[in-house]
């Protein structure tokens, strides 16, 4: 084995994100409690659980939108919670991305579709107008938005198109770690299926590491390598997605899986 290959193997053996004992309280109420897991490069982890189980709180703590009360988060060997705000912001613009459930929260509605994608490149230093527009056009194509819509504002787009635009805006800078909060929530079933297919292709092609929060087990079945089930702020079960869904060990997971099968 060559030195470069050995180095790459060693890097892949290290978790990209390592979380230990993460706890967030809202006064006396528990948001999430004692959450621990490792996420490896190129891995997709799904977080499922009923409403109020702590999924969004956990994702917000991981992405740096909320400060946890206890625990450790290490990204690529760096202590995220000890980072200066400027450094964490830089990570959020470069190596991380965050896809919101509501595209309006992740897009600038008053800026054209091309501008929405292009300004992310400018935020990481791109200056050449022709190249920025070229990259934006390329990314609109990758998320199946017609080239002649590049100058339209997102408010003129359907919900599914807005979500695809939000994904393009997030991925244009080539992040390594993407946080997704119910990315298919609020969309029609047929639109969801198309979006999921697109997401799956992008995740695979770009080798992305993803943490995806959803209440939809079909979404994790399709996208996630590993699955974490939450209830009352705690992780009740985690493991390989197929294993957890086909042979759930925890009583709550069994209920969750069987309730979906009965629908
Ligand atoms: N800003 C807040 N102030 C007080 N309590 C909060 C706040 N945000 C969340 N909580 C509480 O923390 C717990 C976890 O909520 P969280 O929103 O993380 O769950 P969730 O699994 O994401 O739910 P949903 O699927 O409905 O978004 C709940 O008991 C909730 O009431």
Automatic annotation (TrEMBL):
SUPFAM superfamilies, sorted: P-loop containing nucleoside triphosphate hydrolases (SSF52540)
Membrane-spanning segments: none
Keyword hit for Nucleus: no
One Pfam family here: ABC_tran
Protein name: Phosphonate C-P lyase system protein PhnK
Xref: InterPro entries: AAA+_ATPase (IPR003593), ABC_transporter-like_ATP-bd (IPR003439), ABC_transporter-like_CS (IPR017871), P-loop_NTPase (IPR027417), PhnK (IPR012700)
Molecular functions (GO terms): lyase activity
Gene3D superfamilies named in the record: P-loop containing nucleotide triphosphate hydrolases
